[in-house]
Here is the input.
Amino acid sequence: IMVVAGAALSAVKQIEPGYVGVQKLFGKVSNNTLESGLNIVNPLVEVVDFDIRTQNYTMSGVNDEGNKAGDDAIRVLSADGLEVIIDLTVLYKVLPNEAPRILKEIGTDYRNTIVRPICRTKIRDNAMYYDAVALYSSKRDEFQGRIFKTIETDFRSRGLMLEQLLVRNITLPASVK
Here is the structure.
């Protein structure tokens, strides 16, 4: 009776609210996701949970404010050749139906594999079209919209949805201030 009860309990997997489960059996990833609640699965299957709620990633020059310890602000060169420091927060989430593909192609550390590098690269690529003073003042919204569009495209192709991009602080060089 204990063996049967143990086998029955190991066939039930609970997925917490705000998560989906991806089944993995002997290295093979199932394309179906498990919704939140109780799910009956093969007792040999390993279930990998993916958080599908809004997540944020902050890159900041202030110590202990962002996701990495120390200065993680983005240093970019503007069109006039000046170094500008940008603090940024990215709000994104995993698309539930894309979780199996993310596990197969990227793994569970998509934050450091996809989110951080794409954001940093796209910001550098787009900052070169603006002068330092324009980034700080008149063209800030245009710059934010432009990088949102380029990052959104890359995220979508990788199974993530960019919800919002917040340029929190732009620090100009001392000579410009």
About this structure: The mean pLDDT is 86. Residues 110-127 form the longest helix (18 residues). The first strand starts at residue 12 and ends at 15. Residues 98 and 157 are 10 Å apart (CA to CA).
